Structure prediction request, 314 residues.
Amino acid sequence: MNAIKETNFNFDKQTAFYRGKVRDVYTIDNQYLVMVASDRISAFDVVLPRPIPYKGQVLNQIAAKFLKATADILPNWVVSIPDPSVTIGQMCEPFKVEMVIRGYLAGHAWRTYAAGGRELCGEVLAEGLKENDKLPEPIITPTTKAAVGHDEDISKVDILVKGIVSEEDYAQLEKYTKALFQRGTEIAKERGLILVDTKYEFGKKDGEIYLIDEIHTPDSSRYFYAEGYEERQAAGEPQKQLSKEFVRQWLIENGFQGKDGQQVPEMTDEIIASISERYIELYEHITGEKFVYPEAEEVLIRVENNVKGALAVL
Prediction:
């Protein structure tokens, strides 16, 4: 299968290159970023050994759709989408925090709660909650952005005390985060889904705040199926999820949680194909559109040619 494991392009006016966990990012003329959504997959902050065909395209196209659907809330970094797996955008100075917002007690928040924690990033959680319960109001639980390794929880107070973000900017980030989550919740509801939690990244350019990176994708967000949610909660049953959680669960069941000394389980062709199929299913359910497979040409040549064409007209 034709998957993008990594790229090594050299574009005109290229001034920098950065390989993240799942994206390869090219800086052009210190003004633009070419972000290639590779098919690498990470879980527990570890990049797994084999790429997942079409995963990058799925995430890139979902993000493009949601960035367009939220452009009235605040400007975003996107200039063009020249290829199914590529976004070209404005280079912004990123804020050094990720704004995580949670409407339900799930994932990391639940694991903290189940271990006895009743405070998360300065937000106090009530007693007597069950996993996946809806919270009275969405809570913002920021994390610091780690260049390497694990992101760390941080409170609003610590962000301001340490001067990571100014008070004025942080107030604006909170406002944008809540508005984006509300919009994402409304769109999800139309698709029969619940937006459980997600994260947003912001940057600044010429004194203005921009929404950057991907939003509302199954890698950056958790979704539940709305139908049957109340019944499953009442019965104490697990929620039907539409997110990358199924990959994490497969890893946990096979003895891997990213801890020292643990080995990633073997990723067979069957496992790879099943994960790829789930990502395509996610795409179709979240967007309501049929997934369009790219032409069966050499994927790296296609990406390079499409990006060169787009950069020529910038």
